[in-house]
Amino acid sequence: MNQLDRILEITGRPTPEDIESINSPFAATMLDSIQNGKPKNLRDLFPKASDDALDLLKKLLRFNPNKRLTAEEALNHPYVARFHDAANEPVCDGPVKIIVSDNEKKSVSEYRDLLYAEIIKRKKEVRNKMATGGKGVED
């Protein structure tokens, strides 16, 4: 929650449309408790940053996931494009599915344990898939 508070201190409170876009009643309820703050000017916060850096930051901090840059779009942004080699970087075929429900409140350690368990499970699946040549293992 602290991360969200920090972002909203900069971006201001999301619009009702933006809140609806996250499709999470729990998150919407959490956002009801956040005061309606005025967005801060990124140039004031980061006076030495380049225009490209500020543009990338602004586009990555958009609350609405439909308006926020995807990872691939961010890699093609002028600020980081020179570090991006599309021919030599893997691309995820679809959206990443988070196994933790946004509608349940958990402690930090519970979130961490769930995510670590999922990582271990996925690693085993990948190793299994590699060992069997991709046969008999679901994606």
UniProtKB/TrEMBL annotation:
Q: Which PANTHER family does this UniProt record tie to the protein?
A: MITOGEN-ACTIVATED PROTEIN KINASE
Query: This protein is called what?
Result: Mitogen-activated protein kinase
Q: Has keyword Nucleotide-binding? A: yes
A GO molecular function assigned to this protein is:
ATP binding
Keywords for the protein's UniProt record, in alphabetical order: ATP-binding, Kinase, Nucleotide-binding, Transferase
